[in-house]
Amino acid sequence: MVVYVVSAMKKVLIVYAHQSAGSFNAAAKDAAVEVLRAQGCQVEVSDLYAMKFNPSATADDITGEVKDAEHFHYGEETMLAWKEGRLSADLTEEQRKLSAADVVIFQFPMYWFTVPAIMKGWIDRVLTMGFAYTSEQRYSQGIFKEKKVMLSFTTGSSESMFSSNGINGDINITLWPLQNGVLHYCGFQVLAPQIFWAPHHISSEARSTMLEAWRTRLQGLLGEMPLSFTPSDSFDCERGFQLKEVIEEKHKSEAFGLTVGTHLGKRIPPNSQIKAGV
Asked: Can you name the residues that pair with 46 across neighbouring β-strands?
């Protein structure tokens, strides 16, 4: 008897933020859809501008009465609404997509060193307390620890400007709040970002080469190893979630800190937010 083992079809969610269908970001998004579907993946796209996605986190995100209208607390109220099935229809739909996804790709142009406002609104509104994180389930113990995620974005500045001696500062520092403070916080396995350096300032041939490199990476994306972050159990909750003394002592003789954020007053580990395995 021959037994065939078929791996489950991977589901991919692309959260996309660009106003123009003729943009480089649109081309990068379309390439991801094409290549991943060719591999048998089921791909959904949340095109935030086309959806006219509302980025404002307000009481309108809750149907029915709120618990405390006078002292409204968005996190607590949306957590209760999520538990009771009273979140607005647009949030419920985005949470459905995210729950189903094995891999999430955020595709966007970098605005002011971070995501566009409409995408920040998606993060603020969709990643509600209870659904995406709790005080017990975060970082390496996070709710989405079985899911992979990555940032894929364009910059307006050249790579040299985001170097350790560049005018914009080290790109590893720029990415830390997003990759650690949002994605890793929710438990995601964070893949190395896909950075398209200043496509607006290069030739069409160079842009084509960028897209071809992206297509090549997408062929093996599902098997990539994630970036490294310090495990949650390395921190002592009795000491205000500071690094445990035994770990700090063990790392004392190392030339670099543990991570960009937990650097222990040392040099930050080079490229730790843009390359896996460092």
From this structure: 15
Amino acid at position 165, single letter: N
Q: Which long-range contacts (CB under 8 A, 24 or more apart) does 84-92 make?
A: 86/62, 87/61, 87/62, 87/63, 87/128, 88/60, 88/61, 88/62, 88/63, 90/51, 90/53, 90/54, 91/61, 91/125, 91/126, 91/128
> Residue 242 pairs with which residues in a beta bridge?
236
The structure tokens 């006219």 sit at 52
Q: How far is CA 49 from the centre of its chain?
A: 19
Tens-digit pLDDT profile for residues 113-163: 999 999 999 999 999 999 999 999 999 999 999 999 999 999 999 999 999
Sorted by sequence, the CB contacts under 8 Å of residue 269 that are 6+ apart come out as: 256, 257, 258, 259, 260, 278
Span 182-236, pLDDT tens digits:
999 999 999 999 999 999 999 999 999 999 999 999 999 999 999 999 999 999 9
Confidence (pTM)? 0.94
Contact call for residues 243 and 264 (beta carbons, < 8 A):
yes
Among 176, 42, 95, 43, which Cα is nearest to 86's? 95
Contact 31, 214 (CB under 8 A): yes
| CA 78/CA 92 separation, integer angstroms | 11
Q: Are 125 and 57 in contact (CB under 8 A)?
A: yes
d(CA 105, CA 94): 14
